[in-house]
Amino acid sequence: MFDVGIIGCGPAGIFTALEILKERPKCKIIMFDKGNNINIRNCPKSKIGRCIHCKPCNISCGFGGAGAFSDGKLTLSKDVGGYLEEYIGEEKLNEYIEYVDKTYINYGGDSHIEFDAQFANEMAQKCEKNNLKFIKCPIRHLGTEKCALIMRDMYEKLMNYENVEIKHNTEIQDVNFKEKEIYTDKNIYKCHNIVLAVGRSGSSWLEKICQQNNLKIINNKVDIGVRVELPRKITDPITDHLYEFKVYNYSKSTQNIVRTFCMSPGGFVTQENYDNDLACVNGHSFKDKKSDLTNFALLVSAHFTEPFNEPTKYGEYIAKLSNMLTGGKVMVQRLCDLKIAKRSTKEKMKELSFEPTLSDAEPGDLSFALPARILNAIIETFEALESICPGISGKDTILYGIEVKFYSARLKVNNNLETEINNIYAIGDGAGITRGLLQASISGVIAAKDILTKIKE
Ligand SMILES: Cc1cc2nc3c(=O)[nH]c(=O)nc-3n(C[C@H](O)[C@H](O)[C@H](O)COP(=O)(O)OP(=O)(O)OC[C@H]3O[C@@H](n4cnc5c(N)ncnc54)[C@H](O)[C@@H]3O)c2cc1C
Fold this sequence. Notes:
This protein is α+β, with helices and mostly antiparallel strands and 457 residues long. It is 32% helix and 24% strand.
């Protein structure tokens, strides 16, 4: 019998445990993760040059979760990375942002914040004049390599408690919500409180067990788009002051919102593999090792209404279409070719002034995969972005496809992130409540505070 059982050792699960132990160091906690221990987690692609489809994926699963090898950008704004404001309000959220940010610094995070307030105000004015919406967002960039070290230190901290057990390579099969029991393929663990913190990689499983237990869930959205790469000197005049610029464009021709996302100055584009060998694209940047390029995503939000309720399948279908045209690889196209409806070829790619960082992407024609409204909204947004970042749609701009941001089904929870069933909490990205490192970590703190009111000394 445990006081708390935590399923998923990503930032959400880790911060739940750390926060509880801070006040109740004797609390009996058991944590489960289907992936590896952080000390042996390792993506073989960096050594052998290709993805060998580890099961589960070492990039997204294991202690540290998807956060361990992420870009490690802490987005210090209530408007980014999740929906926690809806549950705890603006004031409390700002308080927790400061609190969790400090915790990351205490574990070795860079104390420098990438943000120039005066420059941000000027950018906001410039954007407004050009019908763009600018989101002010200070960033603490931990960097991919430092992020893993921070997770390692958190692991050591937890392992120092005799009353904490961490079970790796242990996939939870089922949860008996009524009896508060957690099932692996071999054992049953009884817990007073259960925290479901399974992240994106566990969201389908979570959706299934919630449906079995008649818990309410909503899922009607997916973001589809491309990863843009271009010479860093074009974005430097902005990214030197802000690290990244978050801009929203309301497309006049399609009425879709298009947003810039996850900007990585000096970064690298990566392939992200999903189930059934689906190859999508993403980007990240190291703290020290830098390229001469900047990459960022341009994403179009697609909302669906009845009778359609499978946005994840829709996003996968579009990405699959792109994979079909490239023999299963990520597709790449020059923006100038896309604009004149021409396929990019290996010869045309040689005209670029740089080597793309995702070297095995296959040149092709994104217009054969992306629906017209998404394509048009993206091209229109490039024109709008020229007004704040001249050169962004030049001949050296390339687009990788497809980047898809799946939204986990959102679970109905109260303001303490407790589900409709007492003592069962659902937090982090897997519950559809957060979409980034910082808010995922904060969601753990929120659940922990409530659990603390229920645990006896
Ligand atoms: C390449 C990349 C770059 C990113 N860069 C950034 C960034 O710069 N800034 C930012 O804010 N966010 C970034 N993110 C997103 C960030 O990593 C996530 O938002 C965050 O990790 C979510 O935390 P979480 O704890 O909710 O879930 P996760 O980190 O996904 O952790 C969930 C854990 O649950 C485990 N699990 C799932 N199902 C089960 C099961 N049935 N049984 C046992 N264990 C299970 C998984 O193995 C996983 O370890 C990035 C993500 C990726 C992939």
